[in-house]
Predict the structure.
Amino acid sequence: MSSNVTLHREGNPLADPAKQLIVLRPRPQHKLFEAASAEAGLYPLRALGIDVLQVNLGKLCNMTCSHCHVDAGPERREIMTRETAEACVRALAATDVPTLDLTGGAPEMNPNFRWMVEEARGLGRHIIDRCNLTILHTPGHTDLPEFLAAQRVEIVASLPCYLETNVDAQRGSHAFERSIDVLRQLNDLGYGQPDSGLQLTLVYNPVGAGLPPPQDQLEQDYRRELAGRYGVVFSRLFTITNMPVGRFLNYLLKTGTLDDYLEKLIGAYNPAAAAGVMCRTTLSVDWEGQLYDCDFNQMLGLRVHHSLPQNIRDLDPERLTHRIITTGQHCYGCTAGDGSSCLGVIAG
């Protein structure tokens, strides 16, 4: 079954298809995201400040997950250099942005990861490591749990289900087993334990083309199942909607479910979620230092407005703090139902 959604490919048509950008173009029967925002009094969507500097350290990863919007994997070679990492730290030092959010790929595979954590820690900033868990089970990285605990880094860890078969189907053979081993190690270091100050957040995303269930109820299920079966505890659970971007978009195209999935997202548009989307308080930086409103825009090549500074080396907080945010049809993914962000649901 072929999709009726109009797609636009960007990049060299002779290059690796996984490295081309696919941007959704609206169908006539689909309301523009901008129109839905205008009806809710949210157009143009503006930033409210910069509370989080989210830095993507590259697309290199030890895993090739089916839902990955980054198209990350072991074969990717896009990785942030030390010079760009230093520019990110300089920008952080020149502002009062309280949180540095490190992501990838597997951000821990960047050789500058530990240096950036130490530098940000020295600046007194809160640090988030968006971790796939299995990287901490990989040779050369097995001492990272102790390092992260010593630096008081918050770990936001992807665990798309509490059932082994579902996780392995999405992330590869033995991914669940290795993730549980790492979670137990993190628990032993204090992560997820009451009053330890070491925050361990788990992240759920649907295995297929559906919206996440209610976050509060699912968190209770995770707590019961992980504690009862494996003795694992954690601080909180975030649910995140799969975005029609990158590898998950390719999955939707191959299975002929893209139209149905977009209809589901558009039909579940929630103005309350739209008012609280993460791009309003986040600035995203790619592996080359280029600036975006969010990580999803980054993967689509949709930079901040052309009138604004385009690179972290030229950061101007005054001009970026209340910027107009670049939006598109993919933004329905963050605004459906209770909403979806890097901090879980928005309006739930």
User: Anything to note?
Assistant: The mean pLDDT is 91. The chain has 13 helices and ten strands. The two ends are 35 Å apart (CA to CA).
